[in-house]
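so my prof wants the structure for this chain in the C-alpha cells format not the other one, which i didnt know existed until like an hour ago. anyway here's the sequence
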Amino acid sequence: MKQLVILGGGYGGLRATQKLLDEKAVKDLSILLIEKEPYHSLKTEFYALAAGTVSDQELRVHFPNDIRLELKFAKIESVDLKEKKIQLENEEMVNYDDLIIGLGCEDRYHGVPGADQHTLSIQSMRRARKTYHVLQSIKANGRVAIVGGGLSGVELAAELRESRPDLEILLFDRNATILSSFPDKLSNYVTNWFEKHHVKLMTKANITEVERYRIFNHDEPIDVDATIWTAGIQASKIVRDLPVEQDNIGRLITTDYHHIPGDDSVFVVGDCAASEFAPSAQLAEAQAERIATLLATKWRGEAFPEKMPKIKLKGVLGSLGKKQGFGFMGEKPMTGVVPRVLKSGVLWMYKFGSNS
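here's what i got, hopefully its the right format
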C-alpha cells in the first residue's frame, strides 16, 4: 500500500488528489489529505468575499468522496523530512512514504513597521471574512487604503468600489503604474477605469509605517479607517522553516520533476515551490497534474522521463467589479465585458464541472 500524504487542500493539493484518484493504473493507493478547513476554498475570489459581494458559502468546494482518500482537518505544526513525519496539533504524528507540500502562502510585509499588526488580509478564508466585517462596519464616507497594485489589489479595489460607493479608496503601489507586470494596454485600461470610478491611485509609493488608523507614505501620515495589505507574498512559515534550499521569499527550490533535490519522495506545489511563473491557481494545478503523473510513474517502478515538457499557461483574467474585466489569453490582451464573462465561466466550470 502506497501511503501518500498531501499537505494543504488548495488548488494544487486538490488537483493532485483528483488526478491520482483518476489514475486507473495505480493500485493499492491510500491518500491522506491534511487541511485545516473542512472544504477547498476558491482563493482567487477572496477579494469579493472581503468586499462583501459574495458569501463565503459561494467560495467553498467539497473534497472528493472516495474510499482511498482520508481527510484530516487539523493544523500542521512542522514537517520532519529526515524522519518522514508530520507534526500536527495536539502532538499527533503522521508518517508518510511520499509527500506533496502545498501549504500556500502568507503576506510578505517587507519589514514595514506595524504592517503585520495593523493591516487586513485576503490570504485565507478566515482573514478575508474578518476583512469583510471590518470594511462593512466603517461609517459612511470613510477612507480605506489598499497597499499593492497587482492583480489582488486591483480586483479588491474595484469590487469594494461596487460594494461601498461611499468610501474613499486609496490604492498604493511602489511602481509608476499599477499592474506593472501586465501589458501597457491593460494597465492603461484599468487606470482609466479607476479614474472614472474615483479610486485614487497612489503610484511611486513608499509605505514606511502602518498604524491602526494611519498609513505613512514617504513618511507622510494619511488617516484611514482601514488598511488592506496585498503587496507581496511569501511561502508559509512551515515551509520557510524547512532546512532545504529556498528562493528569496521562502519557496522551495525543486528539480524539473517538482521534488526536493536528492529526495524524490517530497514534491512541492503552488506557492510553496519556486517558479519562473507568477503564482496562480492555474500554475498550481498544472504542477499538481505533473506531480500526480510522476508519482504514478514512480509507483509502477518506471523511470521518470529524461526531460519534462515546458509548462504552458493559458493566460490571466481579472475583474473590475461584476461587469468589466481585463486579461490576456496567450499573447492577446482583452478588456471590457468579454474577459469578465470568461472569468465567470471559468469559475463556474471549476465549481460545478471538474469538482462536482
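also thought this was worth mentioning. The longest strand covers residues 2-7.
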